[in-house]
Amino acid sequence: MAARTLYDKLWDAHVVRTEDDGTALIYIDRHLIHEVTSPQAFEGLRMANRSPWRADSLLAVPDHNVPTTARAEGITDPVAKLQVQTLEQNCKEFAITEFKMDDIRQGIVHVIGPEQGATLPGMTVVCGDSHTSTHGAFGALAHGIGTSEVEHVMATQCLIQKKMKNMLIAVDGKTPAGVTAKDIVLAIIGKIGTAGGTGYAIEFAGEAIANLSMEGRMTVCNMAIEGGARAGMVAVDQTTIDYVKGRPYAPSGETWHKAEAAWRDLVSDQGAHFDSVVRLDAADIKPQVTWGTSPEMEVAVDANVPNPDTESDEVKANGMRKALAYMGLQAGMPITEIQLDKVFIGSCTNSRIEDMRAAAEVAKGRKVAANIKLAMVVPGSGLVKQQAEAEGLDVIFKAAGFEWREPGCSMCLAMNADRLQAGERCASTSNRNFEGRQGQGGRTHLVSPAMAAAAAIAGHFVDVNEL
Amino acid sequence: MQKFTEISGIVAPMDRPNVDTDAIIPKQYLKSIQRSGFGPTAFDDWRYLEPGEPGMDHSLRKLNPDFILNQAPYNQASILLARENFGCGSSREHAVWALDDFGFRAVIAPSFADIFFNNSFKSGMLPIVLDAAIVDQLFKEVAADTGYQLTINLEAQKITKPSGEVIEFDVDAFRKYCLLNGLDDIGLTLKHADDIRAYEKTRKQQAPWLF
Ligand code: SF4
Q1: Between B161 and which of A442, B19, B132, B165 could a Cys-Cys bridge form, CB atoms 3.0 to 4.6 Å apart?
Q2: Residue A97 CA to its chain's centroid (Å)
């Protein structure tokens, strides 16, 4: 057989049938759902008198709308409450497993899937959420879908798709101190642009990627979508296998051995063809900070805010001017002079135990600066929270002046009470710096957890290595 | 799904790249469990002068006079002319529902984000990719002629300008078929239920841990 990429292998293993024009029916192994993009899909099922093809492939969790304080009081916003209750009712009606708000396993959908072993190597994973690309870290084919497709997968266990093209992004060599998975992926997006991956499935590879933990690989794959690619993935290796072993939904006993043998093959073959190849040298990557309203608008922390007048592409230059005006920044000013109002450590990009540890290490024995109105840490799941507390990280955060919250999406998209006021500037470990993303008029700078913690301590951006 | 055969309508220009789905429909409105009613809050942050919340009477809110879709005749537009990477960001199909509810039936841009592009077809909205130079020319013509209209014929894959000039466009054959006939693709897929069951049977033997 011809040499195949990891994506080719995942695709081939899931084709149910292909039409003459290449349109295929692709089988879906795992379907994660949350409260925001599923109600209309369930409604559609009911109206057509249908029910889920395989209820056991579904796993549900409320995350976008849940409060991160005073959980016991429930949700006060009646509209949000109705949405979470609707998820509950739908799961009950169709016998779907749901981790409810008071369940220790509740958390952000992209954190809990891997944590439970509900995301396994070789799977196709979908969710009505663009950051489903996260699960590709396991050598899985994972991507976001819209609500109509949520309904389609529920009803048929399949998606109608055409195969994407293959892109390889290799990050060669070792990363310098203070440079994390988040910096790697921001540097990648800065290089390829937010539409660079459109139409492609990206495989992240190279020494720097192989050296990442599963948490780090999830951070990288999470933001494949910010680079335009619906799916990002990393080949299976020992790190993957070790992470999956013993998780509640993972196979065990004889089946484990069979599965492990099959998963070892989830790598791109020698000589497999990629339609596009991008290479980065890890040694060149520094801690990154975004300055604009698109994730590609990023620079190293020791750089200055770029000048639109030096951009030759007029459409781009105009976009930069709009971004600078919205962000309230001057071209040419040093990134380290940007003063902050709030700091958010959390989201499906950076709320896993390793992220908590990285931020706590910086915060330890220090104090949040006086100009920071709020610095909050929101763990990705109840289990991450529990683990962090067992390690005493909550004590470190609180002593430094950070708030320690309950798990959920929180200020990543500000659907609940956690949000920026107009004009407020935030260092955030989330994945999108779009206008209004964290609250109308709010200004978001994307950074790694260590850089966010360092910014909280300094009150402005600072290279974590120089704090 | 509503059919798409031929439409003629006013073209509204949205002259900025990377218009994201957060801008098309801000998150606070995603709390709705309905599929309709998103039109009055499409582009909410740009369209109104003060912040909006679900449950408000949006007709009482102060409009931003500088925003293109608040200006006649663009408030009657059914075709949106956009720049690169339109619809990037979140997978929220609410973005398509909001455009549709506003009155748009087609979006023309040099490129779209994958998920938005895909979602559009599911709600009877036609996303058309044209060469950047052609889109640029359209922006110029729209700017020079208030009330500029285009006619889009899906069957023939042709766009006709007021001058009579014709632009051809590409569309995936399967998607075109579904749009022209207003077909629900779940029904189409379920015609292959036997294939799906056969796949499951084989797969269960190869990879029992997936079931
Ligand atoms: S944390 Fe943010 S990006 Fe992730 S699923 Fe929640 S809202 Fe989406």
Answers
A1: B165
A2: 23
Tens of pLDDT, residue by residue over A59-93, are 999 999 999 987 778 888 888 999 999 999 999 99
A9-37 pLDDT per residue, tens: 999 999 999 999 999 999 999 999 999 99
Bridge partners of B112, per DSSP, are: B86
How far apart, in whole angstroms, are the C-alpha atoms of residue B72 and residue A457?
50
Does the domain at residues B6-182 carry the CATH identifier 1.10.3210.10? no
For the stretch A200-230, pLDDT in tens is 999 999 999 999 999 999 999 999 999 999 9
- In chain B, what are the domain boundaries? 6-182
Distances (CA, A) of A436 to A147, A173, A355, A425: 23, 37, 25, 11
List A168's β-bridge partners, or say none. Answer: A203, A277
* Average confidence (pLDDT) over A179-204: 97
Structure tokens at A346: 């959390």
* Spatial contact of A376 and A345, defined as CB atoms under 8 Å apart: yes
What confidence category does residue B159 fall into, taking pLDDT thresholds of 50, 70 and 90? very high
| Residue B195 binned pLDDT confidence (cut-offs 50, 70, 90) | very high
Q: What does each C-alpha distance from B60 to A89, A284, B28, B52, B57 come to in angstroms?
A: 35, 54, 18, 11, 6
- Say what the pTM is: 0.95
Q: How far apart are the CA of B90 and the centre of ligand 1, in A?
A: 9
SS3 of chain A: helix, strand, coil, percent, to 5: 40, 20, 45
Ligand 1 site residues (CB inside 6 A) read A 63-64, 108, 110, 129, 131, 347-348, 409, 412-413, 430-431
DSSP state, residue A459: S
A315 confidence band (pLDDT: 50, 70, 90): confident
Asked if B35's CB is within 8 angstroms of A43's CB, the reply is yes
Cis amide bond preceding B73, omega within 30: yes
Which of A28, A65, A79, A433 should one mutate to test binding to chain B, selecting the residue with the greatest count of B CBs within 10 A? Answer: A79
What are the CA-CA distances from residue B101 to residues A391, B38, B60, B77, B183 (Å)? 51, 6, 18, 12, 20
